[in-house]
Amino acid sequence: MGSWDDKMSGNGTLYVVGLGPGERRLMTPAALAALARTPVVVGYGKYLDQIDDLLVGKKVIRSGMGAEVERCRRALAAAAAGSDVGVVCSGDPGIFAMAGLLYELRDREAVFAGVEIEVVPGLSAVFAAAAALGSPLTNGCVILSLSDLLTPTAVIVKNLEAAALSELACALYNPAGKKRRELLQQALAIFVRQRGPEVPAALLKNVSRRDEERWLGPLADFPAERVDMNSLIIIGNATSVISRGNLYDRRGYREKYFPEN
User: Is the pLDDT of residue 7 over 50?
Assistant: First the structure.
């Protein structure tokens, strides 16, 4: 038996658009194209302010921090009513952002079942941070968030322990707020215990923006007091090297092609 596609049944398409880490030059052409063709744009107010010149003539639905479920429902409702809709996210929509919640709501609420969702990838802050440092993720990485707003603290600690035991570099998002500092201290202690105090580490604030700040050094000297919600932390591993202000990860070429005499 055949079936009508979503467009023919009157639903619009919902584009989940990654804006990248902040600078306009790092937005992808696909993200710009998606925003150009959507008459309705939904997002967190801070992210919408970054692209206000792209929103002229559009219906804009904005909300604040903590209103993610309401925001996604309004976006899905607009698409179900026939509009093409753009939901904007910082970085990539599938990394600590809205793509997963939109799919979950579509599955949970029958009224949204016919809405087509298309994820438009963006450059995540971890990759912009890695580029700014050099090549610290050569052998892969673990990406974790230290925010316990949606993930139980016990789960975050379990993930940190597993990551620290691996041979992979680790990137930590949402490392601390003004009052939320305990998990950051736990994370640093776990990595010092498993990888040693001399393992290379980096702190980046406001990645890819004009006011970007960087610190690079051994984990034992990590400036935890400077960490805030605009920070991203990268912790290296046994093959990480600090050289000439850069951080890079050796991939095994030395052992295979440059044997020691």
Answer: no
